[in-house]
Amino acid sequence: MTFSANIGKAVAAVMACAIMVSVGGCGSSASDGATSSSSSTAGTTITVVASINQWGMLAKEIGGDKVSVTSILGTTNVDAHDFEPQTSDIATISKATVLIVNGAGYDEWATKATTAADTVVNAADTVGASDGDNPHLWFSSDARTAVAKEIADAYGKADPSAKTYFSQRLATWKKSESELEKTMAVFSKEHPNATYAATESVAYYLMSDLKLTDVTPQSYTQAMLNDSEPAPADIQKMQKTLTSKTASLLINNPQEESDMTAMITKAADDAGVPVVDVTEQVPDNATGLIAWMNSLISQFDKALADDQSDESGQADQNGVSDSSSGQSDSSSSDPSNSADSAGE
């Protein structure tokens, strides 16, 4: 069985589990970037506001039909780092019973508005991350698990009568996350020597969970983490990492596009290094946070498999060429020339 088939089996298991906690589609907009999701219920519905839809989707998966979730930033068409909330967004936050923020400097506009909520779940505080750390915490399996528990606890505090319900939802979600971890293990086993470079460190935690080696030049990465433009020398190092095929894969964040990233992705294309786009916000076609992770892993697997197939085909062509060359050498009148060629 090929590694793609192994990944496919693992993916199917994840999807079967994920369906049990699927959030379905997004609802009406609260602002240009906001999305909401709610279900009618006979009891009291907890008003939940998430700064970003990554945590908003998780909030809905844990809360089920006992929560109404609004994500302020809920589209991949907005640059998360430059997002400025509207007055209506701040008003929405002020009405939250449970407010979920990312922290680590990613959504300061939301963390500054946390005083009105009864309960605040801060993902960065939950896992011990601080400003200056990589803020893309939703890509970390450990962070997702820790935040899911915090959310369930917050719901139990807001509605003690439904505490058992939330605990059961959390347990179901954990099974789905566990299946995803198995998929990651299969991927890691099938791609033990895979490396990657990234135009921006959006997927760092996911790639770490997949045990892919980051070969992005450190000076380039540091500049991007500092929200500054890498120096020309750093960009050249990045391009060389791709043209030399030191990286098996290039991760590109389409929400952070620039002339610089266009040059880097072109270098990858020219070198035959596969490029996979990874957004910060959850795409519209994703049904949940884990389903999104699963989709990304499938894309990585396909990109690496296709690249490996291309290299194998090229090696076969080279083998035919070498064989023809060898036949020509063997017909040479000077046997030593053949020996020299073979030695080379």
TrEMBL record:
<feature type="region of interest" description="Disordered">
    <location>
        <begin position="303"/>
        <end position="344"/>
    </location>
</feature>
<dbReference type="InterPro" id="IPR050492">
    <property type="entry name" value="Bact_metal-bind_prot9"/>
</dbReference>
<keyword id="KW-0813">Transport</keyword>
<feature type="compositionally biased region" description="Polar residues">
    <location>
        <begin position="311"/>
        <end position="320"/>
    </location>
</feature>
<dbReference type="GO" id="GO:0046872">
    <property type="term" value="F:metal ion binding"/>
</dbReference>
<dbReference type="Pfam" id="PF01297">
    <property type="entry name" value="ZnuA"/>
</dbReference>
<protein>
    <submittedName>
        <fullName>ABC transporter substrate-binding protein</fullName>
    </submittedName>
</protein>
<keyword id="KW-0732">Signal</keyword>
<dbReference type="GO" id="GO:0030313">
    <property type="term" value="C:cell envelope"/>
</dbReference>
<dbReference type="GO" id="GO:0030001">
    <property type="term" value="P:metal ion transport"/>
</dbReference>
<keyword id="KW-0479">Metal-binding</keyword>
<feature type="signal peptide">
    <location>
        <begin position="1"/>
        <end position="25"/>
    </location>
</feature>
<dbReference type="InterPro" id="IPR006127">
    <property type="entry name" value="ZnuA-like"/>
</dbReference>
<feature type="compositionally biased region" description="Low complexity">
    <location>
        <begin position="321"/>
        <end position="344"/>
    </location>
</feature>
